[in-house]
């Protein structure tokens, strides 16, 4: 207990220094964030801050805060730091690290995902803490599949979804990549983006999860932000080394060819100046899907789809799973 108190005291001292650094920029500084009401679709600006796992706490926290200043000055809506980016000394939530990061979230009116090693009673977790635009802790995700040798407890709370003012997000951490059921649960929770704080880059499994479940993935290992088409986004802002910023349109929507051809044809003829088909069945990609995108400010593709009774691909798959499983239980034919 005495050792734990000494550790917490040293963390508080470091936080005071970082607090002063965070206050170095003017809180009244104007930040040019996206004006979503004047843009087509539903757009959000995300930042992957890829400064790596672990290290000396004070130096890494200072580096993280410096990166958050950069993200904030670039109008980011949500920034994500890597897992246990400030070392492996456990601390509570809220605590010194989340308090220091919260000041930047409040200053720049942005969400921040702040992964730490959490001390929760007598247990320790690899935890990603969600801090909102006002600097408040609004949620947390504890790593479900802890990697061998981490010496941490495993979550018993499962996959979570978090509501933000731009959409719904999920968080999975590092070794979680290897367990598809977690990514399917994010899909079941209807998330728009999965953030993946990690100690490594992840590679092609990330692309597979994105295309299979039709959400964006923001990895914070190598910054290879993945589009809903399963491809790495090429048009990234790189305001400094190890920081990658992308503007994502969460309104872009897939729909299946099944039962929709006539409805889609009518919709496109009546809304040709408001939306486009971004991709369709081709020799390159044989999936029989449309991908729709709004082209006019104030237009929401998903609202238009509902008007024509066209399900999104996700809605179609979810409904089909539920109804066919119910038929299976009754022993009937589809």
| Structural class estimated from helices and strands | alpha/beta
The largest sheet is: 7 strands, mixed
Fourth-level CATH superfamily of the largest domain: Carbon-nitrogen hydrolase
CATH architectural arrangement of the largest domain:
4-Layer Sandwich
Assembly state of the chains shown: single chain
Helix content: 25-40%
How does the overall form come out from the CA principal axes? globular
Mean of the pLDDT scores? 91
The counted number of beta strands is 14
Stated plainly, the CATH topology of the largest domain is called: Nitrilase/N-carbamoyl-D-aminoacid amidohydrolase
Summarize the structure.
With 334 residues, this protein is an alpha/beta fold.
Structure characterization notes:
This protein has 334 residues and is an alpha/beta fold. It has 8 helices and 14 strands. The strands form 3 sheets. The chain has a 7-stranded mixed beta sheet. Strands 6-7-8-9 form a 4-stranded mixed beta sheet, with helices on one face. Strands 12-14-13 form a 3-stranded antiparallel beta sheet. A hairpin with a 4-residue loop joins strand 6 and strand 7. Helix 1 packs parallel to helix 2, helix 1 runs parallel beside helix 3 and helix 2 packs parallel to helix 3. The longest helix is centred in the first third of the chain and has 21 residues. The N terminus is likely disordered.
């Amino acid at each position: 207990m005495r050792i734990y108190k000494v550790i917490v005291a040293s963390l508080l001292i470091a936080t005071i220094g970082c607090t002063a650094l965070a206050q170095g920029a003017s809180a009244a500084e104007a930040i040019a964030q996206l004006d979503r009401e004047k843009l087509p679709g539903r757009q959000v600006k995300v930042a992957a801050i890829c400064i790596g796992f672990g290290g000396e706490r004070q130096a890494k926290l200072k580096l993280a805060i410096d990166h958050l200043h950069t993200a904030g000055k670039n109008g980011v809506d949500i920034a994500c730091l890597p897992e246990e980016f400030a070392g492996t000394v456990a601390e509570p939530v809220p605590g010194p690290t989340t308090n220091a990061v919260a000041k930047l979230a409040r200053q720049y009116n942005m969400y921040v995902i702040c992964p730490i090693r959490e001390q929760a009673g007598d247990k320790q977790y690899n935890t990603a803490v969600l801090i909102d635009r006002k600097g408040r802790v609004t949620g947390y995700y504890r790593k479900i599949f802890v990697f061998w040798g981490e010496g941490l407890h495993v979550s018993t709370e499962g996959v979570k979804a978090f509501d933000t003012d731009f959409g719904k997000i999920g968080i999975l951490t590092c070794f979680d990549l290897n367990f598809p059921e977690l990514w399917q649960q994010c899909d079941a929770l209807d998330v728009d983006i999965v953030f993946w704080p990690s100690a490594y880059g992840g590679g092609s499994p990330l692309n597979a999860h994105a295309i299979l479940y039709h959400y964006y993935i923001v990895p914070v290992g190598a910054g290879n932000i993945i589009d809903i088409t399963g491809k790495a986004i090429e048009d990234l802002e790189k305001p400094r080394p190890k920081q990658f910023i992308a503007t994502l349109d969460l309104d872009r929507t897939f729909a299946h060819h099944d039962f929709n051809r006539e409805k889609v044809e009518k919709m496109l003829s009546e809304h040709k100046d408001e939306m486009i088909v971004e991709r369709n069945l081709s020799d390159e990609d044989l999936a029989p899907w449309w991908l729709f995108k709004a082209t006019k400010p104030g237009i929401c593709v998903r609202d238009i789809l509902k008007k024509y009774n066209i399900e999104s691909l996700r809605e179609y798959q979810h409904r089909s799973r539920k109804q066919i499983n119910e038929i299976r239980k009754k022993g009937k034919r589809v």
